[in-house]
């Protein structure tokens, strides 16, 4: 167990006890110890490994270093708009060092996880609010998709045409994923499924309220906006959320690959408290906050110095400025 | 004060005391007394005076009767998708008996009321999520509208184009009205206005979660769905809702026409508990529930017999099956 993090020493105690900010990693020996203390590294993508299409200096070397040291490297994004292979392609294009090392079976995205969950539930026919890539991930598991992608996009509505909607009674679940082609027809159709089809499930791929754009300067509407609209329209709350901070990915994928690895040797690395850090907490594993995305360094420093934030208590075990800093510290250690 | 309604006798006491169902109007003498006891009648439209484009038998005669007896007749709808004149045209086309009697200055719709409220607040430039008719009502009061109607409809989005949004910093409020042309661009633009423009207000025309379609058999998404999506995207709750059950219309219009009429002689007539009946309660006036729309007769009977409904306690002073029944009872009295 790390001696860097005071909070990690209380990991067996209640969540309440862990509501404090962990220790900053700011020296080479701290960085080295952090690597030595963990075997499984789960990285968030946007804001952690890169910013949109902008690479971060040193991140490729850091990832390569982890592979060289036989660490198990995963990526986990709440974004449901790409397939797993598309993330592999994106990361290896940005960081050629990991080409051939980083593979599809180590990518966790909400589209993939939603397919897993539907399989568990025995659901084979769904209505989708989401992108064509979400549709592809679901179809690749043998699930029949109504709606989704371009289907039903561009349909405007008036009160009269609402009377003509007949929902497909064989739909077993409505899936709310991030959908930039959201429109009134899709909201109306899916809320009618939830109201009229007995047993129809309401499944949300992820609970992200906002999406950072342009290095966090703009916050665009995330999937939770659509989920809230649909919950209001149908009078029903979602039956479940799939992605971070829900621990489903841990049970369904990571723990399967690591039945015997102690939780204290697994770490979730990310820039968002509400998703990444809480996933670590909910999964009972360690967490490292990086300040290259949504959460600012000022915020981490304030938390470390004991300033309370009642709305969003601080729960990470470790934090560092960003992964570039982490790699530079490790390089100093090398020399 | 009416002797028909047990609850009206406690009108001076707290709201808690009034959480019970009022008396049914089922005899000619009860109907006659109800008319005699009130001077100002405020009718909800859809589900009360008509169902979509279907007229209700006797409603024209009832309205004509009220005019003949020198009652003041208002209509009040939460729908923001038509102008006041359009409602006058619709009602007089359905019920030619009131042609020339029912006039624009007695129509309260959320589009009109929103204009009034903006005028009060000194707001002259807004971004609108809503129909072209809402835009017209606002423009008729000298308000400059960005967005609204066909503007920005049909715009799909990707993450990259989000970076190119520049909000107009002179927008003073975002208005969320019912918008069947809702899309991701509009949600993103309006949520950025709320996040980035200092002092920008968030105003919702009405809090209707669902809209009944096809005699209440289908419930379609109402304005509150858009409001909840926008609140989630912006991290802000609305500064205000304008229409029923908010008492704004009472202060801004009805009370102005009736500075000296006792509240006990004014009555809100409608089919929805959450909007119509609560408007009566919030405005301190009487209320009559009709069972020709969202609320069923079974519900009213159950409430009258004392069956509790914790989620939506019963608060009406009177109820009757529908306005056709009311008119038929009055006709029996005539003969």
UniProtKB/TrEMBL annotation, chains A, B:
Q: Where is this region: Disordered?
A: 1-22
Q: Where is the composition biased (Low complexity)?
A: 1-13
Which parts of the sequence bind substrate? 244
SUPFAM superfamilies for this protein: HAD-like (SSF56784)
Q: MF terms per GO, please?
A: metal ion binding; phosphatase activity
A cellular component term from Gene Ontology for this protein is:
cytoplasm
Q: Which residues bind Mg(2+)?
A: 44, 46, 271
Q: Which UniProt keywords apply?
A: Magnesium, Metal-binding
Needed cofactors, names only, are: Mg(2+)
> Can you quote the record's cofactor note?
Divalent metal ions. Mg(2+) is the most effective.
**Catalytic residues?**
44 (nucleophile), 46 (proton donor)
- Can you name this protein? 4-nitrophenylphosphatase, putative
């Amino acid at each position: 167990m790390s001696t860097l993090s005071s909070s990690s020493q209380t990991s067996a105690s209640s969540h309440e006890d862990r509501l404090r900010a962990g220790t900053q990693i700011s020296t080479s020996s701290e960085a080295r110890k952090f690597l030595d203390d963990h075997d499984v590294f789960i990285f968030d993508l946007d804001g952690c490994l890169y910013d949109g299409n902008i690479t971060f200096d040193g991140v490729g070397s850091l990832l390569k270093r982890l592979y060289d040291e036989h660490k198990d490297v995963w990526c986990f994004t709440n974004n449901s708009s790409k397939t797993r292979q598309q993330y592999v392609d994106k990361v290896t294009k940005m960081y050629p060092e990991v080409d051939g090392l980083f593979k599809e079976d180590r990518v966790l995205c909400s589209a993939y996880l939603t397919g897993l969950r539907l399989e568990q539930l025995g659901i084979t026919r769904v209505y989708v609010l989401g992108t064509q890539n979400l549709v592809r991930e679901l179809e690749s598991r043998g699930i029949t998709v109504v709606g989704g992608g371009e289907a039903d996009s561009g349909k405007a509505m008036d009160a009269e045409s609402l009377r003509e909607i007949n929902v497909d009674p064989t739909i077993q679940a409505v899936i709310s994923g991030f959908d930039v082609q959201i429109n009134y027809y899709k909201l109306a159709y899916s809320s009618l499924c939830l109201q009229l089809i007995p047993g129809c499930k309401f499944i949300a791929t992820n609970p992200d309220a906002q999406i950072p754009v342009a290095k966090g300067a703009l916050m665009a509407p995330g999937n939770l906006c659509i989920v809230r609209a649909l919950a209001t329209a149908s009078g029903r709350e979602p039956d479940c959320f799939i992605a971070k901070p829900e621990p489903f990915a841990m049970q369904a994928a990571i723990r399967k690959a690591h039945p015997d690895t102690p939780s204290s040797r697994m770490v979730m690395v990310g820039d968002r408290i509400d998703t990444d850090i809480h996933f670590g907490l909910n999964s009972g594993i360690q967490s490292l906050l990086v300040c290259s995305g949504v959460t600012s360094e000022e915020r981490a420093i304030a938390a470390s110095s004991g300033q309370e934030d009642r709305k969003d208590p601080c729960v990470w075990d470790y934090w560092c400025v960003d992964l570039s800093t982490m790699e530079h510290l490790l390089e100093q250690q090398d020399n």
